[in-house]
Amino acid sequence: MRAEEVKAILTPLYDNYEKHCQSGDIDKCMDFYHPDAVMVEKGKTAAYGKAQNVFTKNTKNQKEKNFLCLSIVFVSYIRDALVNLWERTGPQKFTKSNEKYEGCDDYLVLTCDNTMDSAKRGKETAKMVQIWKKDHGKWVIYHEECDVKK
After folding, report:
1. Nearest of 139, 113, 150, 131 to residue 32 by alpha carbon
2. Confidence class of residue 92 from pLDDT cuts 50, 70 and 90?
3. Contact of 101 with 7, CB cutoff 8 Å
4. According to the lineage, what is the superkingdom (predicted)?
């Protein structure tokens, strides 16, 4: 797939996603993520998947229930990471530069420099990589990685 084709697909998706990030509508942001997505702040944190209630798992095995209760302590979900980011930054505006677009039938990649300007933290710059995956005919974020420079 040519870079122009990938850009034509990703630009409206990214712009719509960013609109919800700016307004703090985390539930709408989550619509853009794959159920098994990973969000990485390079060298600092990682979050996996959408927020889930693991306690709803239907099991009669008490040992398994205990494991599930313990494991939730160690799992950071993307929704939680976005809520935490919003609490630390407030409204935010993202500006992309040096964009590079690549892709194939089932995966699209955006690599760029990204500047986030927020009321609470001012300007922060980062190298960003987003890998979008086609899932049931819809493009969703499968991997998102930021290397924050500040």
Report:
1. 139
2. confident
3. yes
4. Eukaryota
Domain holding 117: CATH number?
3.10.450.50
Burial (CB < 10 A; 0-12, 13-18, 19+), residue 35, is exposed
CB 103 within 8 A of CB 41: no
Instruction: Tell me the average pLDDT across 80-100.
Output: 88
Which domain range does residue 111 map to? 3-148
Domain count, the chain: 1
Helices (H) and strands (E) in the chain, counts: 4, 6
Contact 137, 143 (CB under 8 A): no
Residue 89 neighbours by CB distance under 10 Å: 18
Query: What pTM was estimated for this model as a whole?
Result: 0.80
The C-alpha angle with vertex 29 and arms to 51 and 104, in degrees rounded to 5, equals 100
Average pLDDT over residues 86-99: 88
* Sheet of 45-48, strand order: 45-48, 33-41, 138-148, 122-135, 107-118, 92-103
Residues 6+ apart with CB under 8 A from 42: 145, 146, 147, 148
